[in-house]
TrEMBL record:
It is an enzyme of class 2 (transferase). Coiled coil: none annotated. Its EC number is 2.7.11.1. Residues 337-598 form the Protein kinase domain. The chain crosses the membrane at residues 12-33, 58-77, 89-105. Pfam families: Pkinase. GO terms for molecular function: ATP binding; protein serine/threonine kinase activity. CDD domains: STKc_PknB_like (cd14014). ATP binds at residue 366. PROSITE patterns: PROTEIN_KINASE_ATP, PROTEIN_KINASE_DOM, PROTEIN_KINASE_ST. Keywords: ATP-binding, Kinase, Membrane, Nucleotide-binding, Serine/threonine-protein kinase, Transferase, Transmembrane, Transmembrane helix. It comes from the Bacteria. This is non-specific serine/threonine protein kinase.
Amino acid sequence: MNNSLLPLHKTGWLYLLMVFWLVCLWATITGFFNEISQFNLSFYQQLMHLRVDSISTPWLLILAQFIFFCCGLILLWRLQNKPNLQRSFYLASYCLVLFACQYLLSQFQYWLDLTPSILALFCSSLLLQGYQRECQLFIKVNAQYEPLLLQQLKTLVSYGDEQQISYLLNQLPVNEQMVQGVYQLCQGNTIAADAIRVLLLTWVEKTDIAHQESLQMLREIRQRKLHKKAQENNSDSLVTGKASAQTSDLNLAIKQKDIAQNYIVPKEEKPDVNKINWHSLSSKTAEEQPLEQTLILSEAAEQLEQTLVISADQTQPIATESLANTMAFKHKQFGRYQVEGLLGKGAMGIVYQGIDPMINRHVAIKSLQLSDSVDEVELAKAKQRFFREAETAGSLSHANIVTIYDVGDEGALGYIAMDLLTGAPLSHFIKPDRLLPVPLVYQLMIQITDALEYAHKQNVVHRDIKPGNIIYDDDLQKVTLTDFGIACVNDNSRTSTGVIMGSPYYMSPEQILGKQVDGRSDIFSLGATFYQLLSGCLPFEGDSVVSVVYKISNEKHLSVGKCNDALPASATRITNKALQKDVNKRYQSMQEFKQALINALKRDFKQAPMI
């Protein structure tokens, strides 16, 4: 019988058994069973004509009695989930073995007292039988209780009370029947608002049961909401775009030149995370403009925040984001994907929102668009890095890694179609006045380490872990790892030394020196990200690339606890180990890093990980 719903250690039967065993032990030591033993001995005396005065019980036999007693309890414990008939057979066989030992020893005038062992086994068996009866009753009541919970949930859904629904969802037992019941409830017509469906389906997603129908329904709702917002945001700009399409190409080029010369970067406004559609590859925003109008993008990022690529024969770093300063966009389609709107600027081009009309799936389209000043060598390297992202990320399948759907060329432009993500990059939560709650940071870090553990098992090293490459969805409390543009496959045939790739603030010492890297380099970068999310400060800061990389290579970082004294001790311990300059002193795997975070989350915040 399966007693997993009511384990013995969670009931009072275990304590009753332990008390009874202690009483039996006490009775044996104090000689409480002596009268029963004398009666048993007189029976053997008459049966075998033994002389009572010649029978002895040496200390070895006393030890044997204790061993038999313990063996009986172990046997009974292992038989606790067996049927009554099977358990009775094993116990009877054990008793026969005991009596056989007693009979053989009596032939040599030795007395083995079996009274305590037999009584303990018999009474313990009765107690375990009572526990099994309680299990059967509990299973019966539980089978009737779950439909009542589903019925109550259905009533709350019909009323639309989200607060009560959330409270009840936290009380639901997690099993396949309950997950299926919640999914069927979402399919019904009693739910008027998508918000309640998202609430129910998010509960399913957080369980360990991978219910594919529920997850697919949740993705469709998210994409539908995102598409609706994009249409609202682009409605005005599309009208303007149609009017500007009648302008001649010559006037358009003159206007582009004039705007580019007089363009002033607008003052950055604080974005509303809940109202902006972000794509995984954009850590900066770009105003949505008409699709057929000239698009002017300004280089607004600091050099230290950009991803650098430095070859062995170069003396100056090239920021990949400088490869696409100004460009004109006239495309309405990439392959079979139709463009719907603008999402932002990526590392080497623009990221658009699009749709696959064949299956009505909304996607993000990352395009490779380089300025005319880029020479053929840089163009070839940029294309190689661009399509490496599709090759590397496309081979990975994980809930916290962006999904690649397609890759191709459209004229002179390359493009990658990928999952359209909602939320904002973690780079929007690294200021002291905008930090996420500390327990949530631990939860998100556990998700990232789980994704990177999977990638490392596939021999993929990301090499550019930073807050801007991690997208956080507040509704789902989920992060997605993106931008595998400079990732490498960790084998000798495809990894070369002498090439520096990464973002300076988050690069490991071995990356800075151009050495061959492995997964422990990602551990250092993730440690720097963890440090910044907890404190709002960088572990290594400087006014230039040179000063930053010098500090990473030679100086010890300030303890994160000194930047934020409200952090638990585990934050300092974990960041210090992850940011060790010697790779052999860091965590040696993402699994080890993840386990340290899980242990700290349980110990410091009494929470279970959401993975």
